[in-house]
Amino acid sequence: MSSPLSPATVDALRTCTPGVRTTTHFNHAGASLPSAATLDAIHAHLLREASIGPMEAGAAAEEQTGRARALAARLLNAQPAEIALTTGNSPGWGAAFAALGPWHPGQRILVARHEWGGNLATMRHLAQRAGASIEVMPSDASGRVDPCALEAMLDDRVRLIALTWLPANGGLINPAAAIGQIARRHGIPYFIDAAQAVGQLPVDVTELGCDVLAGAGRKALRGPRGTGLLFIRQDFLPRLTPAFVDTYSAPLDANGEPVLRDDAARFESSEASLALHCGLANALHEALEIGIDNIRAQIDRVAQSLRKQLDAIPGVSVLDQGIERSGLVSFNVTGMDALSARRSLAAQGITIGSNGVAYTPFDMTSRGLTQIARASVSYLTTDAEIDKLLAGIRTLTH
């Protein structure tokens, strides 16, 4: 049974996290603070490269690459063959999207109002050339995607349903599994951007019903920047032809012809950073040891407390929508733009994020927002850190 972490457990985890001694970090949704063990795993491989040569050290890292793949599969309730280790969420998502092949005039892509701007840029770049359209799924009164309204939009021209599960601009959580049921029932490919979800929420790709799911290592997983996970359902893989291959993803046969790998590693490259794979393997191990259900319970408790206290400060507007919410807490301070708020808090040793329209253009525009400040929490976040953040924000309201 899941439960929030005890203060003693949080203290122990913080003791193993060097960054908490030098910053009050509320930008875990941008990139979280890695543990000392994750850093040690990266450094150890770099030292091997320096000692015996990078290529020679690569053989020693193969075990850790396989370990990272197996742990990621366990995290997502997938098979190791369905996992590609990528250089980040956007590269993985974009590679899978590009592998769908040619698009044709009249074909439709359905996205949530909260779709990540980088994904939209990728889709628009293609749609404008092909004559395809990008259409927004309706949201319900809480701000989440409305599955019933989505189903009413479907016809045989819909080629893809794309969902950003946890938006970058606030705490809303979309009903990803309900959307997956609809996609499966109609036989429509379903991509989930789970950049903010992986490591923060339990993720079961079978329950979600997705064909592709992309995640980042640097956020809730507390892995190194430059790492990501890409799940591709095994029976969907034959429908994807990567736009780029090399001798790892499509080795040449006896006749010199490229042969695509029959697993998700067809989306990997021989030029991967093995040191970062070592760090990612450790971060995945730590998350699974703590327990994702426990992490979710802890983050939810901390985020709810922060929202409640922020909402009580005159001149501060909490902007989060949804029914179930994540550890991303969005707000604005009356009379101050979000970037200035972020800079003022940084001068006090407190890091937060700030997002503009480009991050989530449909949602920001529909809600009349030009910017938001974002304080994102982790299971490492303490009451003392919340108190420091609140005190810093109060100085901005005077």
Key words describing this protein structure:
single chain; 398 residues; alpha/beta; Aspartate Aminotransferase, domain 1; Aspartate Aminotransferase, domain 2; 2 domains; 7-stranded mixed beta sheet; 4-stranded antiparallel beta sheet; 13 helices; 13 strands; 40% helix; 14% strand; globular
Largest sheet: 7 strands, mixed
Tally of helical runs: 13
Compute the number of structural domains: 2
- Subunit organisation of the chains: single chain
Q: If you average the pLDDT, what whole number results? A: 97
Strand content is 5-15%
Q: Which series of helices and strands comes N to C?
A: HEHHEHEHEHEHEHEEHHEEHEEHEH
Quickly name the level 1 CATH class of the largest domain.
Alpha Beta
Structural class: alpha/beta
Q: What is the CA-based Rg, rounded?
A: 21 Å
Superfamily at the CATH H level of the largest domain?
Answer: Type I PLP-dependent aspartate aminotransferase-like (Major domain)
- CATH topology of the largest domain: the name is Aspartate Aminotransferase, domain 2
Principal-axes geometry comes out as: globular
Task: Give a verbal description of the structure.
By secondary structure, this protein is an alpha/beta fold. It has 2 domains: 135 residues, Aspartate Aminotransferase, domain 1 (Alpha-Beta Complex); 251 residues, Aspartate Aminotransferase, domain 2 (3-Layer(aba) Sandwich). The protein is built from 13 helices and 13 strands. The chain has a 7-stranded mixed β-sheet with strand order 2-8-7-6-5-3-4, sandwiched between helices. Helix 3 runs parallel beside helix 9 and helix 4 packs parallel to helix 5. The longest helix has 23 residues. The mean pLDDT is 97.
